[in-house]
Structures are given as C-alpha cells and as structure tokens.
# Entry
Amino acid sequence: MGTKIVGLGVYLPEKVLTNFDLEKMVDTSDEWITTRTGIKERRIAENETVVDLAVKAAEEAISNAGIEKTEVDAVVLATLSPQLGFPATACLVQERLGLPHSAMSFDISAACSGFLYGLDIADAYLKSKKKKTVLVIGAEKLSSIIDWKDRSTCVLFGDGAGAAVVRYEENDESDILSSKLYTKGEAWNILYREPCGYLKMEGRKVFKEAVSGMTKSSLEAIEEAGLRPEDIDLVIPHQANFRIIKALAEKLGIPLEKVYVNVNRYGNTSAASIPIAMYEAYRKGKLKRGMNVLLTAMGGGLTWGSMVVRF
Ligand code: ACO
# Structure
C-alpha cells in the first residue's frame, strides 16, 4: 500500500528567448552564459499567466492519469511567481479546472525545492488516508519577477509548468522510497524577492550551498531508501546550472550519463523544473518504470532536499 505517481503533465510557452536575443538586451554574451551556466535558451510566457501554464500542465497530468477531475481532492501548487498576493494561485487553478469544492487547494512557497516539498506533503496526506488523489503542480512565470536590466539574474530563468497526479493505492508499494528535506532560514537573504519587486541573488554563495546541500541530502535519501549511489538508475536534479549538476554528479560518484539535463533548453524554471524534467525523461524512455530515481533540489529559503522514487 502506498503513494503512486500515476500521471505527469507539462506546459512550456512557445516563445523561445535565446542567449543571442539577450545579447541585444543586456551586456552579456552567448559564450559567458553557456560556459557559466550551460543555458542556451529559455521559454517566455508572453500572453499567458502562471495560472494558464499551471492549468495546461495539470490537464495533461489528469488525462495521462486516466482519472476524472472530480476525483482530485487536493491541489498543492508550488510557485515563487504567484498570480496574486492572495488568494493562492492554486485556488485560481481549481476554479479553471472545474474541480469540486472538496479539493482543498493551497500554494507552497519553497522556491526551487517547491515540487519536492509538494510531493512530500502529498505523500503525507495520502499515507494518513486523509486524501486519495492529490494534484501536485510546479508552475512559474519567472519572467514577471525578473529585472530584465540585471544581467546577473535575467539570463538564468525561464517560464513553464509541470504537474503530477499522486494517488494512494491500497494494494501497491509506494513509489516514494525516501525523502530528506531541509530549510536554513538564516540564509534567506542570498536569494529572495523584494516585496512587489525583483528577484535578488548572490550567485556564488547560492552555487556553493546548492552543491553541498543537494549532495548531502542525496546521499541521505539514497541511504534511507536502502540503496547505494551505484543503485541509482537516473538522477533528475533541479535544473539551475549545468556546473552545479556536474559537480553534484561528481560528488555522488554517479556518471553524468545517468543524469537528466535540459537546463540548456529551458533555463531555471524553479518549482517547475523537476516535473518538466521527469516528464521529458519519461517521454524519451530514459525514465522507465521500476527504476530507482533520485530527485534533488535547492532554492530560496534556503530550502533543499532529495527524494528517491521508483515508479
Ligand atoms: N554576462 C556577462 N557577465 C556577467 C553576467 C552576464 N550575464 N553576469 C555577471 N557577469 C559578470 C560579473 O559582473 C562579474 O564581473 P567582474 O568579474 O568584472 O566583477 C563576472 O561576470 C563574474 O561574476 P560571478 O557572479 O562571480 O560569476 P560566477 O562564475 O559565480 O557565475 C552564476 C555566476 C552563473 C550566477 C553562478 O554563480 C551561479 O550559477 N550561481 C547559482 C545561482 C543559481 O543557480 N540561482 C538560481 C536560483 S537557486 C537554484 O536554483 C539552485
């Protein structure tokens, strides 16, 4: 008996913003962005809201799960670029999806770790049998909170959404083998958004915290799952920077071929990055049922953590 990930969905806006486009906007170069981050392009939602992105990803996840919308009895939406100050973006998504009032809906603010926090919350609700079907969404319109004149941040981020339908199945083993999540509030000021303002970041400090936090929590999650690093078939890390991903793989002793990377195409989509990567890896046949998959992330808060899943 346990928690099953039964459907994934994704939505990426059509407009592609390349490094060459950015060269015309700020004092930067494709060469600088590529060597420091691995990012070549990102998607930008021009005429769509974060709710639009979330709804499209959620609709696909529900369809792929083969369930009726009426079966969803909670929506957990992770975002750092909400539609409004309040109510939660999840409430607007619930309305647009036409979910029943019994589907309690709320946002969580855990930045780039948001999808993992959401999955963990869903797992806890399902295990306690308070809920049967939870929709976990990571959705971001980061283009709306980026200072497009600040070259140190605007080259890093992109828009997108990913969603998962998670259910409790009485006769199946849980897909979630372990979960180690952390918060270090005293470091909040190296990555934050000013009230109604822009995202601010001390890149070098975040870089170091990301590598150490993701590595340590990954090793803990692998151990808690009763596995060794060599038992991991696929790593799906938060897609912030290829150099962070490479350093993580080296420290874990896991070859890069076992690490899914799409940061080159989408940049950092914060809470959406892990579900987008899971979806793509599954579609491409790189993520197969029965594999031991390590999910790991770090974000503002600081928040970070890792989970091992098998589905
Ligand atoms: N184009 C050209 N030059 C730039 C740009 C740019 N877009 N941005 C900064 N520079 C310049 C700086 O001004 C600096 O110039 P100076 O030496 O004359 O002062 C120089 O490049 C080096 O700047 P650093 O910030 O020291 O560069 P660094 O090698 O640390 O790379 C980066 C910066 C890419 C932001 C890196 O620190 C990083 O990736 N950090 C992690 C941040 C991150 O991923 N945040 C996302 C949220 S958290 C998360 O998702 C994990």
